[in-house]
């Protein structure tokens, strides 16, 4: 009897797994993973089992996370459980079932209405669509609230983040109204580079924090809730009531410890590589956000999902390079979308070459200027770190100049300046050096010099001025 023909989805999955190189986080076979965990136990000196989430690697994991994020932590087997527990505790303590969160929050989009059905919570939308939360959004919700949840980053909007100042102002607004601020920090590890602050300082803005161990850290499963001692004690109680205090969580905890040791130190490099890839893509591929805030972003292009995925399957099999995940139809007719999450394997790849594969996939091509920026034999991290050298050697038609800019204070300003200057005709490279409170600078690479009046006008529209000594 003939086996049924595999679907395109199944064939794409098999082709992705078979690739020798990958932009995305790679996962070994179960046997390889468990071999690695055994070796990790020896390396980390783990000789004791955890029992009902006490002692052993669970206790060690809670201690390490508490040290990184600056407050006591409780291990949870599930992020869904952990988030509902956090909001329930805040609602019970406040005597108020009303909580605010983005309409794109994971709790509302993917959890089958659990917060309302199981915890009797009344949900108010803090933001709608691709908005980052600010105090103004909170002020627009009248009346008492038990809690305000912010998702850092907001994944379904392309993993976007507020500025640190915006988050601090929102936290102050919550304190003034007696509202508990809860951070959904499933990807807080990936968000640190955007904020430019220690993890403990970011987490310290909130009353409570949730984080995940199986996303950026690559653990098998698991999560943690963090807060003050009383909150953590209540969280442990609710974990037990909801069946989350498992007899053994050893494998999950050890894998999370390995992620903290081996993956966390490289997440910032993955964010830089993601930005290099986004900058190298042709104009026909739209990136959300335009400058990635984390190592995850969305790509949009014109096309039909079946046609693009059929070409993707052929490219994966030909190159043995997982440069794109499958695409799906976007909300905009005639366009497709896919999510990019950069893993450590990408650091050994050239972002320009990967961008070329993506361009070919969606029926586009890199411009002459973008092709000339390739430097074979170097990784994308090398290229990003030596932009001036690479562009001057790689393109005889290019000129590079520096613009000194006043009025820049944060990473959002960097994004605004990069987009404003990058949209000028003939400009195909902008690298900003932020100096908050003083004069910042932008290195611009273009086909020819840009008139000063054009630069002044462009920056003025974006809310900045050219320094007098430019």
TrEMBL record:
Cofactor: pyridoxal 5'-phosphate
SUPFAM superfamilies per UniProt: HMA, heavy metal-associated domain, PLP-dependent transferases
GO MF, one annotated term: L-allo-threonine aldolase activity
Record keyword Repeat present: no
Alphabetically ordered keywords of this record: Pyridoxal phosphate
One Gene Ontology cellular component: cytosol
Superkingdom, natural source: Bacteria
GO BP, sorted A to Z: glycine biosynthetic process; L-threonine catabolic process
Domain HMA: 399-467
InterPro entries (UniProt xref): ArAA_b-elim_lyase/Thr_aldolase, HMA_dom, HMA_dom_sf, PyrdxlP-dep_Trfase, PyrdxlP-dep_Trfase_major, PyrdxlP-dep_Trfase_small
Family: Belongs to the threonine aldolase family.
Protein name as catalogued: Threonine aldolase
Source species: Nocardioides turkmenicus
């Amino acid at each position: 009897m003939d086996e049924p023909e595999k679907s395109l989805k199944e064939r794409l999955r098999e082709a992705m797994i078979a690739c020798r190189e990958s932009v995305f986080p790679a996962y070994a076979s179960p046997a390889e993973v468990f071999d690695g965990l055994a070796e990790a136990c020896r390396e980390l000196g783990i000789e004791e089992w955890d029992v009902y989430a006490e002692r052993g690697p669970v206790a060690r994991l809670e201690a390490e996370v508490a040290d990184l994020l600056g407050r006591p932590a409780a291990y949870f087997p599930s992020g869904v459980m952990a988030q509902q527990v956090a909001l329930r505790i805040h609602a019970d303590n406040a005597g108020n079932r009303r909580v605010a969160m983005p309409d794109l929050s994971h709790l509302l989009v993917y959890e089958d209405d659990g917060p309302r059905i199981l915890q009797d919570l009344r949900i108010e939308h803090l933001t709608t669509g691709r908005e980052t939360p600010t105090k103004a959004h909170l002020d627009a919700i009248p009346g008492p609230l038990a809690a305000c949840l912010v998702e850092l980053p907001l994944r379904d909007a392309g993993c976007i983040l507020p500025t640190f100042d915006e988050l601090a102002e929102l936290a102050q607004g919550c304190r003034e109204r007696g509202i508990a601020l809860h951070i959904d920090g499933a990807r807080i590890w990936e968000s640190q580079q955007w904020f430019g602050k220690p993890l403990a300082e970011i987490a310290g803005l909130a009353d409570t924090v949730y984080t995940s161990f199986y996303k950026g850290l690559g653990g098998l499963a698991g999560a943690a809730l963090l807060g003050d001692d009383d909150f953590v004690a209540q969280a442990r109680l609710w974990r037990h009531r909801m069946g989350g205090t498992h007899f053994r969580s050893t494998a999950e905890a050890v894998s999370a410890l390995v992620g903290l040791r081996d993956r966390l130190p490289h997440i910032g490099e993955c964010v830089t590589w993601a930005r290099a890839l986004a900058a190298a893509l042709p104009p026909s591929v739209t990136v959300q956000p335009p400058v990635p805030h984390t190592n995850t972003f969305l790509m949009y292009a014109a096309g039909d999902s079946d046609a693009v995925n059929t070409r993707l399957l052929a490219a994966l099999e030909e190159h043995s390079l997982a440069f794109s995940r499958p695409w799906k139809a976007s909300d905009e007719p005639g366009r497709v979308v896919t999510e990019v999450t950069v893993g450590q394997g990408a650091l050994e790849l050239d972002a320009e070459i990967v961008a070329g594969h993506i361009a070919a996939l969606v029926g586009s091509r890199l411009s002459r200027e973008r092709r000339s920026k390739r430097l074979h034999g170097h990784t994308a991290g090398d290229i990003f770190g030596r932009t001036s050298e690479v562009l001057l050697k790689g393109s005889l038609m290019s000129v590079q100049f520096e613009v000194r800019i006043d009025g820049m204070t944060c990473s959002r300003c960097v994004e605004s300046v990069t987009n404003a200057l990058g949209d000028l005709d003939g400009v195909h490279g902008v690298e900003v050096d932020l100096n908050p409170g003083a004069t910042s600078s932008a290195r611009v690479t273009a086909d020819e010099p840009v008139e000063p009046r054009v630069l002044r006008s462009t920056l003025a529209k974006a809310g900045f001025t050219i320094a007098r000594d430019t």
